[in-house]
Structure formats: C-alpha cells, structure tokens
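Lab meeting prep.
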Amino acid sequence: MAVHIRLSRAGAKKHPFYRIVVADQRAARNGRFLEHIGTYDPTREPVHFTVNAERLAFWKSKGALASATVDKLLKRQAKIAAAAATEAK
C-alpha cells in the first residue's frame, strides 16, 4: 500500500480550506484517509499553514511520500521558520 501526504479540500465554493492528510494513494481526494496532520488556509492573510511535525516525521519514516503541493508548502514553511530564527538573533 503506497501512502501519500496530500491535501483534502474542504470549505465553501470559492472559499477553499484544505486539510493535510495521510492517505492511501488509491483513495479519492476527499475520501478515506489514515490521519489528519495539519491544515492550510490560502484565503487568510498571511496564509495559514499548520502541520504536526512529529506525525509528519513519523509518516515519512514509514515511507509516505508528500505530494508536490504539500512538499512546496513544507519548504516554504521551513524557509519562513529559518528567516524568523535568524531575525530573532
């Protein structure tokens, strides 16, 4: 069973809200998932992105692959965190 970390769409029409879920690759986009590990809200300013880093690391250690979009969001979040850390010094 191939496991992916991907976005699941929620929210109203033209007001998207996404959940970051761990799911079998064969499951539908908004279908069955194994675990909900975070959220992404692109409509907020600044964009709201949260993820449970401990669970993300656990699933990646088990071989789960992040989708291209989730991977991009994680890299962006890491970049923001690094900038905030250097700014705090």
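Slide two material, second protein:
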Amino acid sequence: MGQELGSTAMHADARQTDFCMYLSAILLIGLLLNASLGWWADLAAAIVMVPVIAKEGMQAIKGDTCGD
C-alpha cells in the first residue's frame, strides 16, 4: 500500500506491523508450548527473538531506511 501511494511513512508502518506480528507469533507459540507441554519453550522463543530484534536495532542505529 505504501508503495502504491508513494509514501515511505506508510511503507515503514507496514514493515513495522509485519515485524511485530512475527515477534508476537514466536512469543505465542512459545507460551502455548510451555503451558501445554511444560517445556521451557518460552525461553527458547525469547532466544529466537533476540537476533531478530538485534538486527532491527542495528539497522535503526545505522539509520537504514525500509527501502534499504
């Protein structure tokens, strides 16, 4: 949608929404596995999320835009 409108702000917002959805899905799966099977899946989910969050953080620090 952001590309169709030529809006970088809309494109960035859509990308951020996707990013949050992926992190939420990882967390939900981890919590469900932890609750149903007693595994430490919530800890594993957190460990899986760390590199994803770190990558996004490094891109933000560098000032990379969504189009990069």
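Talking points for slide two:
Residues 59 and 68 are 10 Å apart (CA to CA).
The chain has three helices and no strands.
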